[in-house]
Structure prediction request, 309 residues.
Amino acid sequence: MLFNVKNFTRMFAVVVLVIGVTMSVAHTSDARADDDEDEGQRPTVSNAKWKGECGACHVAYPPRMLPAESWRAIMSGLDKHFGSNAGLDAASANEITAFLEKNADARKHDASGKPLLRITETRGFKSEHREVAARVWKNPKVKSPANCTACHTQAESGDFNEDNVKIPK
Amino acid sequence: MMLRVFFAFGLVVTVAAGLTANSAFAETPVEVLAAIKAEASGTPGFQEFSAARGESFFKTKRNHDLSCSTCHTDNPAAQGKHSETDKIIKPLAPAANEERFTDMKKVAKWFKRNCNDVLDRECTPQEKGDVLAYLLTVRK
Prediction:
């Protein structure tokens, strides 16, 4: 009898854990589209750890902007992350890596076999920004192409829709 | 039997809820300061934490021409900005942002990360305590 209760307690603990993990890993399904035309309309995925850790220093760049191999390379080199040591505890790093991989861009970005580490070097980024004038990039209000929110006013919520772009003067 | 199962379930849910709530505001800034002090008082040359020393540490530029105030500004009650990415940083002073210094793990993580960026080394417990003592004197 006691044994049974113990088992039930364990089972419920596991169930609660599984529910918790599932909820934190993904909030929405990830319908993939193969063209870039509806970039802004694609459903956004989120994860609290990813948002909190990655989003502390820069926009939490959406997983769909790089392929899984790129995310793996970035996540395994966090101690030298674009000039800063952004190392995380193993549990957080694992959770974030899994989230990024699951929702990554399914296409390969580069045939050379070397994973791209910068979203700005992807074909998608370049083609989407080909009409942006050089002076815009030089504007101190933009400062860096990594600063999505300078123009993409809703970038924080994962919305990169062209309608919400406002280029600073 | 069913009653016990319900009890067990209730217990699990309560514990889970408790853990979730705790992770949001695990400590108060004063508790965090006490924990840093416990660590610092064991180190050689320890002096009582000083807000004045903390303020000077906070505002003094070190390696790479960076100081704490490069990103957090000279007024820790104000909103800051990441020096590389321009990402907005919420106020650091507990008086202006009640979330600050309420989670020991988070505090340790950010001191480690930011001290490495600014000083190319970790901060000593003395330095951390001085800085927090200073931040606690900052009013909105």
